[in-house]
Write the structure tokens for this entry.
Amino acid sequence: MRLRKLLPTYLMASAYAFLLVLPLFTLLSASLRAEGDLYAPGPLEPYREALSRYPLPRFLLNSLLVSVAVTLGVLATSLLAAYALTRLRFRGREALFGLAVALLLVPGEVTFLPLYLLVDRLGWLDTYAALTVPFLASPLGVFLLRQYLRTLPEDYFDAARIDGATHWQVLRHVALPLSAPALGALAALTFIGTWNMYLWPLVVTKSREMQTAQIAVNFILNEEVARWNVVAAGAILVLLPTLIAFLLAQRAFVRGIALGGLKG
Amino acid sequence: MRRRRGELLTALPFLLPAYALFLLFLVWPALEALWLSLHRENLFGRGREWVGLGNFQEVLARPEFWKSALLTLKFALVVAPLELVLGLLAALLVYRPYPGVAFFRTLFFLTTAVPTAVAAVAWGWFLHPVGGWANRALAGLGLPPQPWLTSPDLALYTLGVITAWSGVGFTAILLTAGLQNIPEEVLEAATVDGASPWTRFFRITLPLLSPTLFLVGLLVVLKSLTAFGQIHLLTRGGPAESTMVWIYRVYQDAFFNFQVPLAAAEAFLLFLVLLLLAALQFWLLGRRVHYAA
Amino acid sequence: MGVQGFFLAKAGLLAALLLGTAQAQRITVEFWHSMGGVLGEATEALVKEFNASQSRVQVKAQYVGSYDDGINKLLAALRAGRGFPHVIQVYDIGARIMADSGAVVPLEDLARKNGFDLDHLLPQPRNYYTVDGKLFGLPFNSSNPILYFNMAAFQEAGVPFKPTWSLKDLEEAARKLTKKDAQGRTVRYGLSIPIDSWFVEQISYNSGEYFCNNENGRRARATAVAFDNPAAVAFLDTYARLVREGVAANTGRNWADSQSLFAQGQAAIASYSTASLTGVLRQVGNRFPVRTAYYPYLKERNGVAIGGAALYVLKGFSEAETQGAWEFVRFLLEPRTQAKWHLATGYFPVVKGVTELPEVRQAHVRQPNYTTAIQQLATSKVNNASAGCLMGAFPEIRQYVQAAWEEILKGKPAQEALKEAKAKADAALERYNRSVAGR
């Protein structure tokens, strides 16, 4: 394409990109200012403060552990279920899928209290179990993977079955590699979604040691009355992992989301 | 016999992990919440008594509830068009390959990676009455600073913009894929026939994109109906209850007013609305696909 | 081995036994609090000191988030019947709720059992948390509202300092202190008060009015609110008027935003809690001298009620554990401990005999602003108005008052907005009272 024809595109794209990223940019700049200068137009002091006054590394580690565990769980349970929902035939198959879709719509604020009581009865309060186990399966995961698997050509699967493979083997050697884009997308989505959880960790954790990064942001925001530079530093630190995950997985992410989300 | 049951037995071990977890951690608590909404009790969880649909009646009789429902509708009407239009604009700018498109794509899709809490803090600072860049820019232009988040007239719209910003990356991704699915030949044929870019867009691109647009639109609306984090961090339902959307009222009733069964009833009603919208989507989409095929 | 060996073995056994029993006797007391930042550090310091001072009880302190988060966690734990702590910090407006919960071991009972004379406590904090004649909680972090002044602005505008202010005086001073530029835009506001129901409550108490009926719920259980009283109406109407004139700044509900404005010198008079003192002084730095004064009143000064939070000892634990919890509470009531807490935070001491301690005297000389709240309290009348309102559903009702304040800023007359809020508040209160009745 000729560059002259592209010029308007570049201009518009740059303008849009600039406006889009602006709030994040101001956050970054606030995080690098000393306190007095916040309201006037200096560097890493706020980060040092954010890191020293709050056990941010621990918060970040917790979020990381929980997010990774839940992501792996969701990938596994969703692929298994999606495989059954697409490649196996049985009565009630569509109904089960419908159930998953309906569950997508149940807002967390509805189920939080009974879930809390259940988790308490299991003795999981203030443990990683409470933060991970309830989320190891995701209706969204089942939905996305089932949609994606349906777009794959039947022949691959049929060929493997004809060759005498069991369903497990088909899953491992055919479905798994072919679903890589969708799995990548789901992984990124789940990681970010779990990282993002807010109300639930707030409620089920008591000790500082168990709390997650999102709570840290809320926490710092409440504590650091008006010290936006420290809040900003904390927020940037909490942003970094998902940002990096996104940048790394971007292509797979984009392909997977689009493919999975669009067909029927 | 075996034919009828199909491959259920084979399927069980595949389905069990996911569905067992669903049953235990989603269905059961949801049912228990529903059960709770049919009772009344005091804030210590004692004195539980059956009231049937009493809570639902009370909820529907409260003017604040309808106010919240209206606010939620307004909110969705702000978020959805904004997110769709901007997402479409972004998608149009990056769906075709050209040098540097990857860079723009990354930036456009970036907001997907920003957790709600961080987005809230970033915008909170951006719109800060004293130090925020938005007001400083206005001051530089000689305009008065705006109380973006502290004015009952502005707050809801401000939050709508923030929510749209958070979601526009995801929307852009989906719409980009949608645009890429439109066969080039159709557009080329139209160009050969002498159609202008505008005509091409409105007569060909848009109609072919419409199933995707529809799906994305509905997703956006559903998401906007349950937006919570940014409201909690930035306005807490205020000022003057101008951002007290449905889901925030549920939270408020459960955690500030300690009226858990009432909140459960409100939440269940919200769930019904979401269910209705989703059912609508599937039905309409089903019909469209029929057409397209 | 021989006799020596035998003795050694016996000594060793005895030591092990003693050590073992000593360790077995080390009781763990779980303590939930909502003190973050500077306040949290001070709290942790006290806990550490207590743990180090004796070997019977080990207090484990947990920061459970804001007061709202804390009480929600508590209520959830109470419903589940387990997981609640031995001692918990609950905000002032939770007093009625805690008393109604049936989950609290009243401090009065613990004090009597252990021979502690409750007259050591200052009357106002004691009265605040006394429900149906019994003291339920320990007023741990008690505060007052006070006025903060930017003395450089005062000098510039020629406004003299005085310790007590009527609402009218405050209005006049705020007008004098407002500075506007050539285009009529306010460069420095005269007044900034965060939108918080607390300030409406306090102006009521300080003017001799009640915030809820039955004499603030002290004579009998409160069944309706009384915040449509003349003091509250005047306060809100005045504030709205001043905002419209560009004299008062509307910074919303966030205290931090108002405090930044004040600290930057852009608001000459502000009102916050005495607990905000350390934070505000730090923010102001040496930009301008700060002085503090008593909270305003409508016509005649009655007295302010205390704010903050109290510690409650919960039922459901063994005798030994409850005793351990009491020992922690007892430690916190010692004058030396109160002194440390007061000086580190700005909350005032709740027991008598603290202000005379040498370290406290010296600190007061260095920074006299710390004494304002103490003196305000000492010169307040002790009656049911200054005891503060005691009612259930308080957190919800505060929301209605705050929403009303915001409506008033939009132009609604205070009387009308408060009447509407009263209707909602009364309904909420009625609902609450009904729900705890059959308890």
